[in-house]
Protein: GSCFA domain-containing protein
Amino acid sequence: MKLSTPILVKSPDLKLNYGSQFFNIGSCFANNLANKLSYFGFKTQQNPVGILFHPFAIEQFCKWLEAEAINLDLFVEQNKVWKSLQAHSVVQGETPEDLLFNLQKAVVETRNYLKTTDTIFITFGTAFVYHHLPTKKYVANCQKQHSSLFKKELIEIKALVEAMQQIIKTLSKFNQANIYISVSPVRHIKDGLVENNLSKANLLAAVHHVIENNTNVDYFPAYEIVMDELRDYRFYNRDLLHPNELAIDYVWEKFSIAFFEENALQLMHKVGKYRKLSAHRPLQENKATQLAHLAKINAFKQDLLAEEPHLQLDK
Structure:
């Protein structure tokens, strides 16, 4: 009896291993993937200026990578903390100068990191953007400013394609990395469910147009796996919008099988055991027991590093 509609995940021509270096940018689902990569010891960086939901926001970050000046007119103060409308609120400063320094630091670190990155994952969340009326700029985050300062717009497919092409062009300049694009399965209910579907449709149409015209770009069907293969509320958090841990684990499993070499998959199993051992706390809390447990963890770690020097186990 067939109880689901499986989504085929295309494997890359050259599967990935622990020598691969990953960069993840985009919506919160990009962080889900990056967190899994980090957990299993891969070298990865994620969202240097926080979550960016739409292509225009990611394109703006790419302009910073190409040395465009950061727009100080889009700095705002909120509860004695400065934030940028072009970044997530996780990047902030006590003064405008502090905020500018933190943004510039993130840009410089990303430039350097991308020079040795061979695999990039981009996740687009929405085709809706907010237009900041005073500056006539599209923003990444409204930072709880008054709604009268913004106008919400649905970006048409042509403009989305142009933004995505520019993102790919910029990211490809640092190193000829393979780029994988996905559309986030997270529903943006504030836009309305009908509007959310229209937004996702525009993103999907734009993404596949871009893939057809770039040889180093391919698609990872995270959206289809959650929406069509899982297709059940038990795979969502209580908000019924965000995929839960079970769904994320399922997507990760399909991704891993399709993308990683067999040797990497076997080592990932060992790293998983190491992570669980590291998280375990002995029932007996005497010093001798604790020291023995720490010694066991360290010995396991050294064995793993001897087997694969590229492992990142300190995160």
Observations:
- The first strand starts at residue 21 and ends at 26.
